[in-house]
Amino acid sequence: QVQLGESGGGSVQAGGSLTLSCAASGYTDSTKCLGWFRQAPGKEREGVAIIYLGSGKTFSADSVKGRFTISQDNARHTMYLQMNSLKPEDTAMYYCAATGGGYCYYSSGLVSGDFRYWGQGTQVTVTS
Question: For residue 19, which of 92, 69, 74 has the smallest C-alpha distance?
Fold first, then answer.
């Protein structure tokens, strides 16, 4: 059973930075991807960034490209989301997720995938 736990959210002024962490455990060789998603009140969940566990290859949604960076520390079983140049529209609950046997995708500037396991979320608020 994959278990995920996010931390690092908070409130920051526009232009500031935050780093989110996701502690992951229980995933196996069949777990293909980890990812970050976000959901703002009244909006649909949006894929932010994904990382392939085998190759380490990463993709970011166009909405955050150049500002957010996804990375992983295999030794610590932790995934990170470094967020720079934050904007008020980045305000949302941020979730980390893991696929089961499925894959993740990057297409037309969007990231998505067959994410089966989810953390409880961490709130990010960006004030203007």
Answer: 69
